[in-house]
Design brief:
The structure is a single chain. The protein is an alpha/beta fold. It is built from nine helices and ten strands. The strands form three sheets. It has a six-stranded parallel β-sheet with strand order 7-4-3-8-9-10, with helices on both faces. Strands 1-2 form a two-stranded antiparallel ribbon. The mean pLDDT is 96.
Length: 225
């Protein structure tokens, strides 16, 4: 028995419509983990107001529900490290002056360590069976992971993204994907930064020059698709 390919659908976006099919597109939610979004985690240890990131949770949950209803592949990433920190280079471990560093004990366990309570995805976006959960030691989701192999195995060529932070892990992943030939759409309300001006600048960079990195869409335009 043969099956026809899923129809091409369109999402109103900037700099122009974003085309996708349910069978070749995945939703990626980047690093929506407690260590970044809740008090007591790594984000707060850097002196940030984590409530600015929490604003993206409800829109991301609506986006996740939309993708699940269509039967799309969903990928959840977590920035995380091995307990012995062998995958965390000194250039990352010693950067800046946080009150707690990666691996230090905190209110939610050791910071950014796999398996610790703070490294879990927030409850509103918790993965379900059949969704990919990807632990990544770097900013981008393709670095030192099996992400590309998993996408190739599933014939995924297009990515719809949300997550945190917009200018760091989300943008890095989009640029990595762009270099590998993936079309990427970032959903504006489903991403956030500790610095709202950085989010705005990142959205502008993505769509500049005819979409040099990808597309940006409003959540409601995605849900209408």
């Amino acid at each position: 028995m043969t099956h026809d390919a899923a129809p091409e659908l369109r999402i109103a976006a900037s700099p122009g419509p974003f085309g996708y099919r349910r069978d070749d597109t995945a939703l990626m939610l980047i690093d929506m983990q407690r260590d970044f979004l809740e008090p007591g985690g790594f984000g707060e240890s850097l002196g940030n107001d984590v409530s600015l990131l929490a604003r993206a949770v409800e829109p991301a949950a609506r986006l996740l529900g939309w993708a699940r209803a269509q039967g799309m592949l969903v990928v959840h990433t977590r920035e995380s490290h091995l307990p012995n920190l062998s995958d965390c280079p000194p250039a990352k471990l010693l950067r800046g002056e946080p009150s707690r560093r990666i691996g230090d004990p905190g209110p939610m366990g050791r910071i950014l360590i796999r398996g610790e309570p703070g490294n879990a995805i927030v409850e509103a976006l918790a993965p379900v069976d059949g969704e990919i959960q990807l632990d990544k030691p770097g900013k981008g989701a393709f670095h030192a992971t099996q992400l590309e192999q998993q996408l190739v195995q599933r014939n995924i060529r297009r990515l719809i993204l949300g997550g945190v932070t917009t200018e760091v892990c989300v943008q890095t992943t989009m640029r990595e994907a762009n270099d590998r030939g993936y079309d990427c759409l970032l959903v504006e309300e489903a991403t956030a930064s500790y610095f709202p001006a950085f989010k705005r600048a990142t959205l502008d960079m993505i769509v500049a020059q005819g979409g040099i990195v990808g597309w940006v869409a409003k959540l409601e335009d995605v849900l209408r698709a």
